[in-house]
């Protein structure tokens, strides 16, 4: 048994597909399948159940994969420890971002961070909050960028920025004539929300909980862009975080009006999470400082408003 065997098994456990697992491990499918068969013979137990339609781990396979992921994370940590001993800003870093942050933050930060730290290979993963926390805990991800606070032991947190919510409404809506909106103004409005699993859904519901806002039950969006397009048709309103509005190409949509809230504006805090046991803390701190600087430059002082942070629902 060696680390490569465990890597194959972990890939099959994650992807539930031999070909995709082989591609992830940069080997042929017969090689991966053959090595897993040898591992099963060596251990004396069946790890993977195969049929013509699906592939999945057996119960003992699931348990072994949990340990295998820890072992692989520890092995990667040793390699990174050696690489970062002389330079903390080199090596490979796996960072997860939630879907309501990734499309808007990444275009602002990827190039500046790559230019600032050319020896650092950052691999980005777009995942929802629950999946991100699971992968952080298993060592698959080194850090995650998401809405905070998060109640989970063993994680460190660096606040990156706080962004206010805006009301997004069709330009024919009554709100389109307003320069600002109070939360109470949302009473009796029809609200368009993301589907279950997105933390932003819970945050928007928290903001609107004190009003009689109605959720449109016959529609739940898979992304902010889907929600945005539906708002443009006039079937409802939604709340959009600032970074998803001010990104240069998005604010050009003339069919939607974005209206700020009166102070204190409801907002979400975005942070970078990492395992407290990680040896990459210096690296996380430098990346966080870069993101903070970029956000400060991207959003002028005139755009800064007094905000009321919303506790995230998971």
Describe this structure in words.
Belongs to the LysR transcriptional regulatory family. One of its GO terms (cellular component) is protein-DNA complex. Residues 1-58 form the HTH lysR-type domain. One of its GO terms (molecular function) is DNA binding. It comes from marine metagenome. The chain is α/β, with parallel strands linked by helices and 314 residues long. It has three domains: 3-81, Winged helix-like DNA-binding domain superfamily/Winged helix DNA-binding domain (Arc Repressor Mutant, subunit A, Orthogonal Bundle); 87-160 and 268-309, Periplasmic binding protein-like II (D-Maltodextrin-Binding Protein, domain 2), CATH 3.40.190.10; 162-267, Periplasmic binding protein-like II (D-Maltodextrin-Binding Protein, domain 2). It is built from ten helices and twelve strands. The protein has helices at 3-15, 18-25, 29-43, 59-84, 102-116, 129-138, 199-208, 224-232, 243-246, 281-298, and strands at 48-50, 55-57, 91-97, 120-126, 143-148, 155-170, 190-194, 214-221, 238-241, 256-260, 265-275, 307-309. Strands 3, 4, 5, 6, 9, 10, 11 and 12 form an eight-stranded mixed sheet that branches. The protein has a two-stranded antiparallel ribbon with strand order 1-2. α1 packs across α2 (18-25). 32% of the residues are buried. Residues 247-251 and 301-305 have low confidence and may be disordered.
